[in-house]
UniProtKB/TrEMBL annotation:
The gene is mtnA. It catalyses: 5-(methylsulfanyl)-alpha-D-ribose 1-phosphate = 5-(methylsulfanyl)-D-ribulose 1-phosphate. Catalyzes the interconversion of methylthioribose-1-phosphate (MTR-1-P) into methylthioribulose-1-phosphate (MTRu-1-P). The active site is at residue 270. It comes from Succiniclasticum ruminis. Substrate binds at residues 45-47, 120, 229, 280-281. One of its GO terms (biological process) is L-methionine salvage from methylthioadenosine. The record marks 190 as: Transition state stabilizer. Its EC number is 5.3.1.23. Keywords: Amino-acid biosynthesis, Isomerase, Methionine biosynthesis. InterPro entries: IF-2B-related, IF-M1Pi, IF_2B-like_C, Initiation_fac_2B_a/b/d, M1Pi_N, NagB/RpiA_transferase-like. Belongs to the EIF-2B alpha/beta/delta subunits family. MtnA subfamily. The keyword rRNA-binding does not apply. This is Methylthioribose-1-phosphate isomerase.
Length: 390
């Protein structure tokens, strides 16, 4: 199975997804700003993958922030001194100094969090991960951890986000495979695979698990305009794993449902509101409407970190609008008049009423979603899997 990112020697190495399937190239990131740029440019993409990348980016941010203070300390010719001791020298009493230093560091850390959150607004996994890291750093400061300890704990937490994502996808695969019929002919949109996560995938994770059980006859992969995540990434990923795949352009989805025996649709999600309305790659809404018209069950697969329990419904989900040139041209080739008006939303919202079930690592949620999502929230809060404790 393909790898999306690696954390090696204090650097985040990202598979450049804009180059696939033509070439396999890696990007080495040693600043949070570079990771933010990679998220913005879709070099790393897919809700869980950008969440994990952002968690590592927060580690990089913390390191640079501390490094800056160390440089100041060294300039004051006190390089052997602990940073906290240096702060004490600057600010007086040790306790007061340590507090003041932590506050300054946390303020800068908050800035890094906000910058990363701004890189892509729709997938809530991004702000879920940066909040997790920021809140943990605040708790570590309250608990009196020194800077090297904080550094080590933050790194551990980011690795946990990464590792848990793979574990969650495997669980989703187990639950999801149960809803996949024998001789399944599945339609999926965009890429919700290993490439969009830390491994295995959400929608494609379910498809992988169902394939292991011998249930998958064919996967129809929508090309997914404008950036072709379906034909470039999903098709590539499934072929790598010898899972039968047929690529279609987006405008062939309804006709394929009518003529090709599609008996289930499974896609990923970027943000799910408390009533089940779901944002996913632009075009998903149309696929859900067509599935409804053909009596085909439409499923979403997403981890709990993709739910935004604070939003009542889908109208509150921020929808990213991307550069018009993504539509006016493709990979440098002009495909429209250069001054034509363009509407380029990256996502749309599928109303809950079109969704048969939402596959999560806690099980398959069924309508009415307001109730099943409330129950999910209770389970997530009870588990507090990622809350840092001293
Ligand atoms: C498991 S990934 C779920 C979603 O993030 C995926 O379906 C999607 O819409 C990705 O959009 P992208 O713009 O490629 O990041």
């Amino acid at each position: 199975m393909v790898e999306t990112m690696k954390w090696e020697n204090g650097k985040l190495i990202l598979l450049d997804q804009t180059k696939l399937p033509v070439s396999v190239e890696w990007i080495s990131c040693d600043t949070y700003q570079r990771v933010g740029k990679a998220i913005q440019k879709l070099e790393v993409r897919g809700a869980p993958a950008i969440g994990a990348a952002a968690a590592f980016a927060m580690v990089l941010a913390w390191r640079k922030i501390v490094e800056k203070y160390e440089t100041k300390r060294d300039a004051a010719n006190t390089s052997n001194m602990q940073l906290q001791t240096y702060a004490a020298m600057l600010y007086g009493s040790h306790d007061h100094a340590a507090k003041k230093l932590q506050q300054q560091l946390l303020k800068k850390f908050l800035q890094a969090r906000n910058d990363l959150d701004a890189s892509r607004p729709t997938a809530v996994n991004l702000s879920w991960a940066t909040k997790l890291m920021y809140d943990a750093a605040c708790k570590m400061s309250e608990a009196g951890l020194d800077l090297p300890q904080t550094d080590a704990e933050l790194e551990k937490l980011a690795v946990k986000v990464y590792e848990q994502d793979i574990a969650k996808n495997r669980k989703m695969g187990e639950y999801g495979a149960e809803v996949v019929p024998e001789e399944a002919v599945i339609l999926t949109h965009c890429n919700a695979g290993a490439l969009a996560t830390c491994g295995w995938g959400t929608a494609l994770g379910v498809i992988r698990s169902a394939h292991e059980q011998g249930k998958v006859k064919m996967v129809y992969s929508d090309e997914t305009r404008p950036l072709l995540q379906g034909s470039r990434l999903t098709a590539w990923e499934l072929l790598e794993d010898n899972i039968p795949v047929t690529t279609i352009t987006d405008n062939m989805a309804a006709w394929s449902m009518k003529t090709k025996g599609i008996n289930i649709v499974i896609t990923g999600a970027d943000r799910i509101a408390a009533n089940g309305d779901t944002a996913n790659k632009i075009g998903t809404y149309g696929v859900a409407l067509a599935a409804k018209a053909h009596g085909i069950p439409f499923y979403i697969a997403a981890p709990a970190s993709t739910f935004d329990f604070s939003l009542k419904n889908g109208t509150q989900i921020p929808i990213e609008e991307r550069n018009a040139n993504e539509v006016r041209s493709f990979q440098g080739k002009v495909s429209a008049p250069k001054n034509v008006n363009v509407f380029n939303p990256a996502f749309d919202v599928t109303p809950a009423k079109l969704i048969a079930g939402i596959i999560t690592e806690y099980g398959v949620l069924r309508p009415p979603f307001s109730k099943s999502i409330k129950e999910l929230k209770t389970k997530v809060l009870r588990e507090e899997l990622f809350t840092w404790k001293a």
